[in-house]
C-alpha cells in the first residue's frame, strides 16, 4: 500500500512537472534512448521478423528494468519516470505554434513546425493540409504521449511508464511499412498496437465527455474508425474529428508512398481555429486523465491490501 501511495504521488508530481515545463530541449532521456537504439540497429539489423522481435523485446526489457530501479527510489523515481514518459505539453505547444504561424500568414514556418509532428512531406502541404496533419497528430499523440503513459503508470507504476515509452519510441523509429522495416519493424509495430488498444479507446471516451458531444463522437467512431489502417489511430482521430465538427483523413503522402486514408467525421476541412480547438481539447483530456490515473493507482493499492 505504501508503494502505491508513493507511486500515485510520483504520477501526480510528474504530470504537474510536464504541464509546467514540457520536454527539455536538450538531453531528453527519450532522445538518448532513441540514439542508443539507432546505433545498435545499424550493427544488428537483419531483414527478418525474428531479428526485429528480439531487438524490440530487448530494448523494452531494458526500459522496464530501469523503471523498476526508479520505483525503488520512491516518489522521486516515479515522478522522473512520469516526466520522462509524458509529452503532451510539448505536443500542445507545437500545435499552438503552428496555428499562430498560419494565422500570421507564415506558411513556410508552419510547414517547418509540422514536420516535427508528422512523417509527411511538408512541402506538399497547403494550409488546409497542414491543419489536417497537425490535428491528426495531436489526436493520435494525445493518446500515445499522454493517456497511454498515464494508463500504464496507473496499472504498473514506473516500469509501466518507461516500458510503454520504449514501445512507442521503437514503433516511431522502426515500425514503418517501408522496404527496410517491413520485416524488422513488424514486431515493434504490433507491440505498439497492443499497448495502445485501451489508451486509444479511453482517449475517445474522454474526448466525447470533455467536448460535450458524446452521442456524436460515439456514432462517428462506430461508423468510421474501423476503416482506418491503424486499429488505434482511427479511433482517436475520428473522436477528435467528431468532437470538433470537422473531417479528417484523405490522401496522405509519406516518404515510403501515398496512402488514401478514409474520411473520418462529418464537416469541413480543418482550419487554424480548429487546430487551436484541438489543442484545447487535448489539454482538457490530459488533465482529466492525470487525475484518473492517480486515483486508479491509489485504488490498486487498496485492492492489493
TrEMBL record:
InterPro entries, per the entry: Cobalamin_biosynth_CobD/CbiB
Gene assigned in the entry: cobD
Organism: Gordonia sihwensis NBRC 108236
Superkingdom in the source lineage: Bacteria
This protein's name: Cobalamin biosynthesis protein CobD
UniProt subcellular location: Cell membrane
Function field: Converts cobyric acid to cobinamide by the addition of aminopropanol on the F carboxylic group.
One GO term (biological process): cobalamin biosynthetic process
Cellular component annotations (GO), alphabetically ordered: plasma membrane
Keywords: Cell membrane, Cobalamin biosynthesis, Membrane, Transmembrane, Transmembrane helix
Similarity comment: family membership: Belongs to the CobD/CbiB family.
Pfam family, one: CobD_Cbib
Membrane-topology annotation of the record: Multi-pass membrane protein
Pathway: Cofactor biosynthesis; adenosylcobalamin biosynthesis
An example molecular function term from Gene Ontology annotations: threonine-phosphate decarboxylase activity
Amino acid at each position: 500500500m505504501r508503494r502505491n501511495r508513493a507511486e500515485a504521488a510520483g504520477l501526480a508530481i510528474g504530470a504537474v512537472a510536464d504541464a509546467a515545463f514540457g520536454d527539455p530541449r536538450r538531453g531528453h532521456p527519450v532522445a538518448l534512448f532513441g540514439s542508443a537504439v539507432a546505433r545498435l540497429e545499424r550493427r544488428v539489423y537483419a531483414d527478418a521478423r525474428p531479428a526485429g522481435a528480439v531487438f524490440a523485446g530487448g530494448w523494452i526489457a531494458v526500459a522496464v528494468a530501469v523503471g523498476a530501479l526508479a520505483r525503488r527510489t520512491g516518489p522521486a523515481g516515479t515522478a522522473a519516470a512520469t516526466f520522462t514518459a509524458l509529452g503532451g505539453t510539448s505536443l500542445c505547444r507545437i500545435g499552438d505554434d503552428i496555428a499562430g504561424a498560419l494565422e500570421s500568414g507564415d506558411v513556410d514556418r508552419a510547414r517547418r513546425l509540422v514536420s516535427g509532428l508528422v512523417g509527411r512531406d511538408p512541402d506538399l502541404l497547403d494550409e488546409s493540409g497542414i491543419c489536417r496533419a497537425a490535428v491528426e497528430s495531436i489526436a493520435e499523440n494525445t493518446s500515445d504521449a499522454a493517456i497511454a503513459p498515464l494508463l500504464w503508470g496507473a496499472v504498473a507504476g514506473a516500469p509501466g511508464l518507461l516500458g510503454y515509452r520504449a514501445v512507442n519510441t521503437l514503433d516511431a523509429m522502426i515500425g514503418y511499412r517501408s522496404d527496410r522495416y517491413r520485416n524488422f519493424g513488424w514486431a515493434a509495430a504490433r507491440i505498439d498496437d497492443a499497448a495502445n488498444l485501451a489508451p486509444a479507446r479511453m482517449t475517445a471516451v474522454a474526448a466525447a465527455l470533455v467536448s460535450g458531444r458524446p452521442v456524436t463522437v460515439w456514432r462517428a467512431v462506430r461508423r468510421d474508425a474501423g476503416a482506418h489502417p491503424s486499429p488505434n489511430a482511427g479511433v482517436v482521430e475520428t473522436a477528435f474529428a467528431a468532437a470538433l465538427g470537422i473531417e479528417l483523413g484523405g490522401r496522405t503522402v509519406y516518404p515510403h508512398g501515398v496512402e488514401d486514408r478514409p474520411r473520418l467525421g462529418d464537416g469541413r476541412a480543418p482550419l487554424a481555429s480548429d487546430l487551436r480547438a484541438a489543442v484545447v481539447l487535448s489539454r482538457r483530456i490530459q488533465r482529466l486523465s492525470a487525475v484518473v490515473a492517480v486515483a486508479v493507482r491509489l485504488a490498486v493499492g487498496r485492492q492489493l491490501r
